[in-house]
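Dear Dr. H.,

I hope your travels went smoothly. While you were away I took the liberty of generating a structure for the chain from your last submission, since the lab meeting agenda had it listed for discussion. I wanted you to have the full record in hand beforehand rather than looking at slides cold. The sequence, exactly as received, is reproduced here:
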Amino acid sequence: MSLKEDILNALKKVEDPEVKTDVVSLKLVYDFDIDEKNGIVKFKFMPTVPNCPIGIQLAMMVRGAVKEVPGVKKVKLRVENFIYKDQLNTYLEEIEKEEEENEYIAITVDKSGVLWDDYFDKADYFMIYTKYGNFISARENTLAKESNIDNIAKIASFLSDVKVLICKKIDEETKEKLKSHYGIKVFITTKASQKDALAEYFSNKNV
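The corresponding predicted structure, in token form, is as follows:
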């Protein structure tokens, strides 16, 4: 299967919640330019209507889905036929620049989006942000059903370019392994929301 086929299959899982149909079937994603050798994907997206109330959210969901496809290293998405396209495209360009620095921050959350209270490896999702706090994607935690914490290499591989992990609880042995073996710094937050946890991290990151 080609990289484009993998990308389209991933995008078929992204639905416009208002019409209950995926973005591929609606032809909202188009003009694909894929460099399979270097993993660079360029394409365009447009909401169902120019004043779509969830246009920004949908664009980020589309981008996140493509970013998670194995073999994809860079995503260059541009939005058309949207009243806020200029602002959104500027924001997307900023994210692309930030991604090149590979300093992502992962936050462990449950299915409702609230920070996970238990150990980080049991969280439902890792919400991924750039070091500036811009949201990149949500990665479903495939490790949640595997209670073997010794499989630390798989966790590190799963988090890939993450440099900081924000969670509420983690054992000291795992925390030390993540830092010494994989260069992942662990920050223990006291906050319940992702926004507040990020703010807490940024205000304490030099401590």
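Two observations you may find useful: The beta strands are 15-16, 21-22, 29-35, 40-45, 74-79, 104-109, 125-130, 135-140, 162-167, 185-188. The chain has a mean pLDDT of 88.

With kind regards,
E. W.
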